[in-house]
């Protein structure tokens, strides 16, 4: 697994954990840490979204 794949996977996991916290506890960890829709939180959300798109590629690659 390439380093970019690992970084993307970590960001997707962070996004999944954040969505889990929002769904279960109505608690947004990213907004709590960086401020509600601050430029940094928007960057984090954008990176998580791009990482999600990148990880779609991992579904179709053959890692023999």
Task: Please state roughly what percent of the residues sit in beta strands, choosing from under 5%, 5-15%, 15-25%, 25-35%, 35-45% or over 45%.
Answer: under 5%
The general outline is: elongated
The total count of helices amounts to: 3
Low-confidence stretches: none
Number of strands: 0
Strand count, sense and barrel status of the largest sheet are:
none
Give the end-to-end Cα distance, rounded to a whole number of Å: 11 Å
Order of helices and strands: HHH
Q: Tell me the radius of gyration.
A: 13 Å
Number of spatially distinct domains: 1
- Provide the structure class: mainly alpha
Mean of residue pLDDT values: 93
Give the % helix.
over 70%
Describe the structure.
- The chain has 64 residues and is mainly alpha-helical.
- The protein has one domain.
- It is built from three helices and no strands.
- It has helices at residues 3-25, 29-34, 39-60.
- Helix 1 crosses helix 3.
Attribute tags:
64 residues; elongated
Summarize the SSE layout with pairings:
Layout: H1 3-25, H2 29-34, H3 39-60
Helix pairs in contact: 1-3
Summarize this entry quickly.
The protein has three helices and no strands.
